[in-house]
């Protein structure tokens, strides 16, 4: 079992290239998020390019998960404009384009085997695509296993496999490394980096400084009902990142 860093002062961002930062395919313009007509976060303005991995950070209750659910079309109460490739996207269109890997993946696994999960709810599933996707994520040895018998990391990979088979372009991970040791955290980091190379737009809600340093190309800070900061992980911003995590 790999151990996490004892001293986070010794952990430094890997300064991953922001990727296709010039090719901004997703844009949010003056977006507000509400619950029972009460504002949660307002005046969100951001854009994201193909392959970017954006860490969403902030205190508990700041609105991070609500933003994530709204990006995926799972939260209804929102205002402002959501654009994909300069075209406005309503909630149903966002729901069709995106996929959210929840903190408790058990809530989105329904079938009685990994292979069945990968075709669940899909009309005329492409068996070749399912086979290739399971193979690329190391899931072929578990194809007949019930998802409930898998480890947390393996369940995450099943959820990611479903997103790939369904052709989702925007992926959101909610606290994907909560409670994981170093080796498991590194596996999640490598998986998300692989999705980035495939051209997915990725948001990661997290409180994990070590994971952000290993994975993200940008950080979006949400707190006190507003978008507080949005910066690329480059050397000049390392101190900003440490302040956000009180390091």
TrEMBL record:
<dbReference type="InterPro" id="IPR050095">
    <property type="entry name" value="ECF_ABC_transporter_ATP-bd"/>
</dbReference>
<dbReference type="InterPro" id="IPR003593">
    <property type="entry name" value="AAA+_ATPase"/>
</dbReference>
<keyword id="KW-0547">Nucleotide-binding</keyword>
<feature type="domain" description="ABC transporter">
    <location>
        <begin position="26"/>
        <end position="247"/>
    </location>
</feature>
<comment type="similarity">
    <text>Belongs to the ABC transporter superfamily.</text>
</comment>
<dbReference type="GO" id="GO:0005524">
    <property type="term" value="F:ATP binding"/>
</dbReference>
<dbReference type="InterPro" id="IPR027417">
    <property type="entry name" value="P-loop_NTPase"/>
</dbReference>
<dbReference type="Pfam" id="PF00005">
    <property type="entry name" value="ABC_tran"/>
</dbReference>
<protein>
    <submittedName>
        <fullName>Glutamine transport ATP-binding protein GlnQ</fullName>
    </submittedName>
</protein>
<keyword id="KW-0067">ATP-binding</keyword>
<keyword id="KW-0813">Transport</keyword>
<dbReference type="GO" id="GO:0016887">
    <property type="term" value="F:ATP hydrolysis activity"/>
</dbReference>
<dbReference type="GO" id="GO:0043190">
    <property type="term" value="C:ATP-binding cassette (ABC) transporter complex"/>
</dbReference>
<dbReference type="GO" id="GO:0042626">
    <property type="term" value="F:ATPase-coupled transmembrane transporter activity"/>
</dbReference>
<dbReference type="InterPro" id="IPR003439">
    <property type="entry name" value="ABC_transporter-like_ATP-bd"/>
</dbReference>
<dbReference type="InterPro" id="IPR017871">
    <property type="entry name" value="ABC_transporter-like_CS"/>
</dbReference>
């Amino acid at each position: 079992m790999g151990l996490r860093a004892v001293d986070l002062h010794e952990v430094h961002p890997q300064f991953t290239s922001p990727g296709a930062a010039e090719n901004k395919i997703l844009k949010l313009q003056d977006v507000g998020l509400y619950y029972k007509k009460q504002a949660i976060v307002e005046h969100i303005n951001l854009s994201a390019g193909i392959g970017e991995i954006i860490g969403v950070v902030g205190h508990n209750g700041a609105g991070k998960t609500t933003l994530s659910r709204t990006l995926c079309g799972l939260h209804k109460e929102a205002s402002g404009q959501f654009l994909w490739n300069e075209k406005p996207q309503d909630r149903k269109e966002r729901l069709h384009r995106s996929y959210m890997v929840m903190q408790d993946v058990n809530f989105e696994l329904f079938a009685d085997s990994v292979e069945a999960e990968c075709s669940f709810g899909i009309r005329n599933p492409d068996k070749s695509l399912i086979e290739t996707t399971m193979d690329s994520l190391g899931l072929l040895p578990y194809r007949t296993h019930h998802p409930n018998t898998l480890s947390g990391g393996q369940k995450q990979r099943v959820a990611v496999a479903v997103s790939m088979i369904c052709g989702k372009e925007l992926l959101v991970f909610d606290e994907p490394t909560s409670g994981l040791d170093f080796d498991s955290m590194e596996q999640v980091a490598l998986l998300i980096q692989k999705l980035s190379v495939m051209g997915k737009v990725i948001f990661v809600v997290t409180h994990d400084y070590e994971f952000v340093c290993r994975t993200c190309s940008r950080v979006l800070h949400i707190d006190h009902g507003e978008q507080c900061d949005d910066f690329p992980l480059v050397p000049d911003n390392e101190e900003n990142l440490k302040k956000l995590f009180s390091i």
